[in-house]
């Protein structure tokens, strides 16, 4: 796999589009929905630091280690949040899906299921990844539960792995899905997405 170029991934509920500086105002408005940046165990940007975060992600994209997306709801073009392919290793190839946050008000609506299905399908079926990784704070129970619902398995915990903005040390939970597990994971995600679509009609 060579460097992953920016691309658009479109599902029935969500479109993932390449992050651009022009997304700043929509993202700043989106992150105020639920104010998840106030949770000490997350690394979600504040509205005031959104431009810095966009610059950071685009710099990593230029370096080849990240491909950042903005999630937009198809029904009304509302920007929901951000997600990325990160820690990209093109030689294996392997990557992590992470640095994800979404509006609190869309939790449970199927948009995150659609987003993860798009990212995982492209990673396994187009890029040919033998494994896709997810990482989160040990204390972020909601994130851990969401990752486990995807079908990812816990590989281990990196103790005192990273220093947080408040100075505390983060224990990082490392999860992964491997290629042999992907057909079952895909079927489960497709079933969950179908239920959301049916409930919306």
Automatic annotation (TrEMBL):
UniProt cross-references to Pfam families, sorted A to Z: Acetyltransf_3
Residue span, N-acetyltransferase domain: 14-153
UniProt cross-references to SUPFAM superfamilies, sorted A to Z: Acyl-CoA N-acyltransferases (Nat)
UniProt protein name: GNAT family N-acetyltransferase
Organism this protein belongs to: Paeniglutamicibacter terrestris
Phylogenetic lineage: Bacteria, Bacillati, Actinomycetota, Actinomycetes, Micrococcales
